[in-house]
Amino acid sequence: MSNKVLISPSILSADFAALGQAVRDIDAAGADMIHIDVMDGHYVPNLTIGPDVVKALRPHSDKPFDVHLMISPTELLVPLFVAAGADYITVHPDAGPHLHRTLQSIRAAGVKAGIVLNPGAPVEQVDPVIDLCDQIMIMSVNPGYGGQSFIPSQLEKIAAVRAKIDAHVARGGQDILLQVDGGVNPVTAKACIAAGATSLVAGSAVFKGAGTYAENIAALRGDTANSKAA
Ligand SMILES: O=C(CO)[C@H](O)[C@H](O)COP(=O)(O)O
Ligand SMILES: [Co+2]
Q1: Which pTM does this prediction carry?
Q2: Looking at this predicted complex, what is its ipTM?
């Protein structure tokens, strides 16, 4: 795997009246993936994007669509996001009803599967399903809204999951992206990377940061030569 950290800008912070343009712009600015936050007004107290919007955005970029499902129950809607063009589907273990089966069904559909640990969730949630994960995401804010502040206690969890992934790979298991989502800016990004993250989600820091989208993305990678936002 490349040492370069992947940047997955969250379109939650984009202009919802111009999402296609936003996806084209972050693609051109060097995003590695496009993070799409799906909220149902039930698992989290906010409503956002459904499968028809994901399908409508699909022609606007060839980059992987990184779909973060904050919906409960999860299982019934997974096929709709697969059909809409998701490349990664990441689910919350407590959204239910059957985490193991949900991850199996995502992978059986040819899509990469991930789990998300909320700030209050124990790191042990990873253990029973690590074989089925292509991505593990640590939420560094409580899910539901963009623009919140990074919760520093999650750095310890990032490091603990890094150790679990490294041990898993050493046993011959598949490599797994370690993603962080929430309150990621150039300062917190540095701490996340030091703790072992390999993929960073950022909404506010990309769409509302100090520089151009390309400069904001470069700043998250720690590439200060190409950034005005660091
Ligand atoms: O999943 C999310 C919220 O539930 C978002 O991906 C996340 O909050 C990104 O926004 P920001 O970078 O502004 O914190
Ligand atoms: Co998200």
Answers
A1: 0.97
A2: 0.98
